[in-house]
Automatic annotation (TrEMBL):
<dbReference type="InterPro" id="IPR016566">
    <property type="entry name" value="UCP010219"/>
</dbReference>
<feature type="transmembrane region" description="Helical">
    <location>
        <begin position="136"/>
        <end position="157"/>
    </location>
</feature>
<dbReference type="Pfam" id="PF11361">
    <property type="entry name" value="DUF3159"/>
</dbReference>
<keyword id="KW-0472">Membrane</keyword>
<keyword id="KW-1133">Transmembrane helix</keyword>
<feature type="transmembrane region" description="Helical">
    <location>
        <begin position="60"/>
        <end position="79"/>
    </location>
</feature>
<feature type="transmembrane region" description="Helical">
    <location>
        <begin position="216"/>
        <end position="240"/>
    </location>
</feature>
<protein>
    <submittedName>
        <fullName>DUF3159 domain-containing protein</fullName>
    </submittedName>
</protein>
<feature type="transmembrane region" description="Helical">
    <location>
        <begin position="85"/>
        <end position="105"/>
    </location>
</feature>
<feature type="transmembrane region" description="Helical">
    <location>
        <begin position="189"/>
        <end position="210"/>
    </location>
</feature>
<keyword id="KW-0812">Transmembrane</keyword>
<feature type="transmembrane region" description="Helical">
    <location>
        <begin position="112"/>
        <end position="130"/>
    </location>
</feature>
Length: 252
């Protein structure tokens, strides 16, 4: 076969697999060496959330922003709105940088700290430019809506990204689930479950953003986002395990 004469579906799958790899990266998934020895559901959930430490590290910059904005603002110390906002921005950025430095000193992975700092920096810049504390959360809201849109599109074109993610993380990179009707349908509706989950998380936050409830938005982001994520991941792991225990996909 000469270069450029590959079947069109092969080129399409390569693009979809690259997109699925980005989903795996975003959700912090990884390929399991032996698909017959998958971690338990609780172990998988704990790994995705990073345990108690992961929850604390991911929530600390947002919590710092909320606390400083409330304590320094009219509610307590009575500083003007912009001054309180600038101190809150500085506190959140410093805490995010501190987490990354702490991990570097301990020679621990810093990818998540860098990603978190990047997101915090964008939100901080928007809040600084507009003078509105609520805009600190806007990039995260838009990103979540974007993820939901991509997943929905993958269902519409019948290339569910949750299936590709499963192939990468638990099936040694094989995407042979297309030939298994039950698995294909499972991945289709599970991808829709993720669409609903992401849309719910982003929708609640967007509603509070539209109302200008910046402090409530920060609290909701901390207290609601992670439980919804954990529940969705747990349900996904359970549903896939339920199907794969009764059916074994043959290697490609």
């Amino acid at each position: 076969m000469t270069p450029g004469s590959e079947p069109r579906h092969a080129a399409q799958e390569s693009v979809e697999e690259r997109l699925a790899e980005e989903v795996v990266e975003e959700l912090d998934l990884h390929e399991v060496e032996d698909p017959d020895e998958l971690p338990s559901m609780s172990e998988q959930i704990a790994e995705q959330l990073g345990g108690v430490r992961g929850l604390i590290e991911s929530s600390l910059p947002v919590l710092t922003f909320v606390l400083l904005n409330v304590l320094l603002g009219d509610a307590v110390l009575g500083l003007d709105k912009r001054t309180a906002l600038y101190w809150a921005i500085a506190g959140s950025v410093i805490s995010a940088v501190g987490i990354g430095v702490f991990r570097l000193i301990r020679k621990q992975p810093v990818r998540h700290a860098v990603n978190g700092l990047f997101g915090i920096a964008i939100g901080a810049f928007l809040a600084w430019r507009t003078g509105e504390a609520k805009d600190f959360y806007l990039p995260g809201i838009l990103l979540t809506f974007g993820q939901a849109a991509v997943l929905l599109l993958s269902v519409i074109v019948r290339k569910p990204l949750i299936g590709y993610a499963w192939g990468i993380m638990a099936n040694k990179g094989h995407q042979d689930w297309f030939g298994n009707t039950k698995l294909f349908r499972t991945f289709q509706w599970l991808t829709l479950v993720w669409v609903v989950s992401l849309s719910l998380r982003a929708g609640i936050q967007y509603y509070l953003w539209a109302l200008g409830e910046a402090n409530a938005l920060g609290i909701v982001r901390i207290l609601i986002s992670w439980p919804i994520y954990a529940a969705t991941f747990a349900f996904t792991a359970w549903a896939i395990h339920r199907v794969t225990t009764t059916q074994k996909v043959a290697p490609a």
